[in-house]
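Sample 1 of the test manifest.
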Amino acid sequence: MTEANPATRSIVVERTLPHRPEKIWRALTQSSLIAEWLMPNDFEARLGATFTFRAKPMGNWNGIVHCEVTTFEPPRRLVYTWKGGTVQNAAYGSALDSVVEWTLTPVGSGTRVRMEHSGFRPQNESAYTTLSGGWVNILERLERVTADRA
Amino acid sequence: MTAATNALFKTLSDPTRRSLFERLCREGEQTVWKLTRHARISQPAVSKHLALLKAAGLVRDRHVGRETHYRAEPQALAPLIDWMSLYSAFWRDRFDRLESLLERMDQ
């Protein structure tokens, strides 16, 4: 990891799952399995591999997220860069240059799974929406919020 | 909530307006005529909803000859959205899918 940059923000999701680290590692590092829960991809399970995720295209962006495996320590730690978007998408924020870090820690018969997606800058705000399925998703959430407040 | 935020909520609380706005977000600029074809309501009703969306800053119009073209201004939603929580929601959703995949996988 690079040193913390105060200008960027991270998203951390942590869960303890009733599965062994080796099994979770497979779900995180086999292309066909990754596609089932994250996105279509051409992931390669080796240090230094470059690969892509195929997200929903938005504006001038073709939806491709460019990644590189920067840490590959089965079955404990996996880090890849996550670069998507385009500067041409200016109205919706600049390109996203971020890092996704997975850490698996055995806990009893299960595993603590920690995901940190770091490197968000304020101007990346629109990239969140692109990656999370676009404005329609926002509106679906908005609909729920609206219903809650009605 | 500010008055502006309240106005946005009020404008988007109507399902017809929301679906017009979603269509413009999804498919880009469109004429009133084309929007009416999909809306299952009359053209004057569509125009009325578009006027309300415009008043809330959610759409912008442009006149070309006799036709009025509308496009979405999704940035107008910005005051409503906590961006980080939205992106967190993306990852939480993917974690849910990961969990269900793990349930299906062999040991």
